[in-house]
Write a structure and sequence with these properties.
Length: 311
Amino acid sequence: MVRLCIATVLIMLSAFGQSESQSGKGGWTIPRIVAVGDLHGDHQNAVKVLKMTNVIDADLKWAGGDRTILVQTGDVVDRGPDAFKLYKMLRRLQEEAQLAGGQAVNLLGNHEIMNIMGIYDYVSPEDIQQFGNITDRIIAFSKDGWVGKYLRKLNVTAIVEDTVFCHGGIPVPWAKKGVEHMNTIAKDDLDTKTPQELWEAPIFGEHGPTWYRGYALDSEESICAVVDEALAHLSVKRMVVGHTVQEDGRIHTRCQGKVILIDVGISAVYGGHLAALELTPTSARAIYPTESVQLELPPGYLLATEDSDEL
């Protein structure tokens, strides 16, 4: 199983890829995780959120040092105009975080996959102009283009300490396969399948980790037992997802804190709501421009973290 932690960040992939390592006994080894949901082409609001959480400084450089893991759960592209600038910034922050001893983990969302497939239904004219023209943009997202190469090295899901992150959600059948297997399937499909074949690929379907909305939309009576089973297969305590916009612009928990919904509509297209999730060994907080709000922790969570010999 792929787990990420700063204490053992000796095993790194390429500068454009993900950092992966083993978290040993599962104890908490880092001061904090900051998770940010869908950005949808809004560079200005993305910068505001990253500054608000002290992940970047006034010059937009990595400011998390070796004390922060940043997780962005996908859908950087579409709707708004700034995919070009956002991918440049996120790719650079991965490199800067590594050099500082921290980590920046960027995941694939369904809109990344659609752009790789050549589905441009949600691409704005301003977005195309930032790349030059439509031909330049298509080339950029191709296997040999700078965006395409970058995206094909990203994962669809990652476990950081005791939390699994993905764009949409991980149903039980995929949870049984495990994080490493899901990521391997996704990368293999992106490398070998045609755009039409990708449309039919189960990993990118409505019940795959980039599209599934059940944990966000279905009643808790019907999904909490499913969440428990999925988390048990993944050996984690909670799942953090984006994808489904919370129309009030607030981060919400479900199933006693076992699911956290972080797509608050950061892009101006969705209202420009600024928020990020911060996880520490003993707390979960929703951070907003004028306040932070404590979120529900999974049952038994405090006892488990306090008893850890890693603290």
